[in-house]
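U., I forgot to send this yesterday:
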Amino acid sequence: MIKTIVNAWKIPEIRKKILFTAFIILVFRIGSVIPVPFLNIVGEISVGKGNTILTYLSLMTGSAFTYGTIFAMSITPYINASIIMQLLAVAIPALERLQKEGEEGRKKIASITRFVTVALGLLQSLAYFFYLRANNYLMTDANGQLFTGFDGVFQALVIILVLTAGTAVIMWLGEQITISGIGNGISIILFAGIVSRFPTLIKQLFQYLDTGRLVYRILVPVVCVIFLLMIAYIVFMDNSERRLPITYAKRVVGRKQMGGQSTHMPIKVNMSGVLPVIFASSILSLPGTVQMFISESKYEGTFWEKFFNAFQGDSWWYALMYFLLIIFFAYFYSTIQYNPIEMANNLRKNNGAIPGIRPGRPTSDYILRVLSRLTLIGALMLSVIALFPIIYSLICEAAIPPLTEGGDDGGMTISLGGTSLIIMCGVALETVRQLESQMMMRHYKGFLD
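Result:
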């Protein structure tokens, strides 16, 4: 990877693209620290305890959400809009036809996705404003009271519109990277937001060392080694694929003989990417979000207290539900993305076949069995990455007692989750692949010239 980046830097055209991408990332990070007008925030915004929608947004926005900046919504509305469009393309025939129309169809879907992104950004900004208002993060008048009347409406409009505009600007910045930079712009911005949390993670590890406890002096280096091993594991998972052998029958077209060659159909083991983890974590964060808006005295000592505790990130029940949901959404996503019948029909139309498998129904059944097994393997591999930080924290919490009775200086938590690691590694690998392809295209162009 390092060698690829060094070689790419030596090429003037690619160096300009790298510098342009770095400039856009700098603009994104500057916007992530500019506060929204009319907010009165000292330190960070409370996102509640445990696993909530707010902690998820804080993670995906690089903590911009917890500081109330103009990019507090970050790229999450666009990600949600893209997922919604993918699901609707399966349910709505008109969108499915657009996907099959080539470049023009993709442009129309991209245009619709932009409008959906702005709409979702407006809804999230509205919900964010009401949360800030309910928790007294808005500027007040001289008497310490919230603004009312025209002043209150103006304050609300400015905050909501600034947050929505921030979402639109980030979407535009991402598209500029895709057009004039290196890699997928939306992924690069998401990558930059996650990486910006690294100083917090390093600070957290040093705080454990500052306690002077021998157990932390042993565990902190162990965590660093495990972190590197997890990156290697994710790279292996991302590159793993099953290659189905394909043979094409010979046929005569005019005076030419075509076909008669053997190739393969690559199917990635982790075909659903990080989406099952995102879906699962989003659903499991809903009970914690509801709990934030309910007074603790109303459910304390009742069934609902046990219910909410089961959805906390430090619960074994949470780890079990997380695992099952990852498996479920992995199968769900592979079902809507891959159609074995259509794949078998395309093979038959092109005079292709899988050796030892008859064309038609037997081929589609065989592809379905392969997809099912690969989906299970990919989901299990995803689960290892997603659940490791949770299980590690649970084991450390049980094994490392606090120094003081009833204190919170026991255990050891890892603030960087498996979702972040998978996204980081995936974006880095994809960006390096694009660098390599652009370098290869340049060499071919020079040879032809």
